[in-house]
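tool_call predict_complex ligand=flavin-adenine dinucleotide
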Amino acid sequence: MASSQRSQILAALASVFGDSASHLGSAEHENEVKHAFVARPKNVEQVQGLVRALRPLVLSGDCKLAIRNSGNRGDYFPGSASANVQEEVTIDTRRIKGIKLSDDQSAVEIGAGERWSPVYAKLREYGLVVAGSPDGDAGVAGFLLSGGLSILSGKTGFACDSVVEFQVVLASGEVVRANAEEHADLWRSLKGGLNNFGIVTSFKMKVFKSRRIWGGTAYYSPEAFMELVHWACVFAEDDSDEHANISCCIDYRFGEKEAWCEMYHTRGRAYPPSLMPFMETQPQIEEDCTVQISTQLKLSNDWSNAIKFESTNPRHLSASITIKGCMVSVLEDVYEEWENTLEELKHIIGFSFTLGFMPLTKSMLKNSAEAGGNAMAIPPSDGPLFLAVVDTVWPKPKYDNLVFEEIENLMAACRRLVGGKGHLHRFIHASYAHHEDDVIAGYGRESVSRLRETSKRYDPEGVFQKGTPGGFKLLHHYPVLP
Ligand SMILES: Cc1cc2nc3c(=O)[nH]c(=O)nc-3n(C[C@H](O)[C@H](O)[C@H](O)COP(=O)(O)OP(=O)(O)OC[C@H]3O[C@@H](n4cnc5c(N)ncnc54)[C@H](O)[C@@H]3O)c2cc1C
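tool_result ok
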């Protein structure tokens, strides 16, 4: 970066942070991506100040921005710079805190920088839950702006569907509250719209009464996996219990395969009929089973501990497709391809590899649509759907190219097989997307055109498009760049 550019940026940062702006350059980086400055606003006024001060530099091409929160989507993913930008300015929203329950206890306003665990802890005092991440360590902002799938999703749709209001700083520096009455187009677009429209500083979400949740993880020998898949298809097809939630997974780790099923009943009903087949599938490793009556807080902390391996390991790659319908044979094709890829990669010491199937039932999609619409715009008639998610962790950069190539081949083979049978759906969930996927195109033509209108209206000069390049961008879907 040229020194004149550097001093212009420093002057802009100093207008918000005073003398401390000169220290803003030293901070952790997202993988190999090294920003020049990181700014850590504590409140909406500082975010406004930053946007106003940096905007002229962004528009003149002298500065690019990144927005990051806990960096969950970026810290572990080599090649992904969704929440950071090389040699430029990262705006880190982690210091924007606050968890405030409304007086009538129907909604909670959460600062963008919170993680889910403290939110669950606060709500537990009132016997309430919210559609947040199953992982208590995950950041609130990125999870909700990606759409988000929570253990309450059967009843409440995507996690973002529970957001009744976003507080957002626009490209002009103006702060608006986007909800169903005011700026409803922006409200809808932000639900799954990622960093395309502004910097979100708080989320007001609906809360639900629930003192107890029944759930956890049951573990099985790998040969039980296809039986779990069969029951997952029955579960999605029956669609008889909106309070039940499952995902069925198989993984390879430390040289061994293991199958597991995460299951929850968010009304706290133990052993509900909808989940009994998963409890009864054999061979099960019963001594490892964690399914119990619990709370959202405890389950999310258990989840964070269980994925510590992923979150502390430096090389991490996810990818997914969405499958239409409940055909066991289609899911089996994906499993066979996953097995083939495993054979190519399992010689890597410290390699771990997971395949998970997560149903999106018709009632989940109906409840999502009834919440006012979102960027994903999946009609309930498209359901039931299954997300097929692969997740890879490996320890050393020297294996990056091999893993990247094998995962790309795997996803291409899955798309070919599933598409060939007419079961490939357009949607790619942003939280589980490969960094080169076109997540925005997966929202469908009509939604993309609405998102474009929203972007033109609230950010006509493209500060959050050309000026903020990381992540899944609407920019590539403009016939002419804004
Ligand atoms: C091990 C692991 C397990 C996971 N499990 C689940 C799961 O069960 N369900 C699920 O749905 N997801 C899951 N995820 C995905 C996770 O929720 C996302 O990665 C999410 O983006 C993390 O949120 P964050 O706040 O850290 O966002 P970041 O990673 O910091 O950012 C993600 C995106 O959001 C943008 N962004 C962040 N903050 C703001 C803001 N304030 N305003 C505007 N844009 C912003 C960034 O620019 C970036 O494009 C998992 C991820 C990992 C690594």
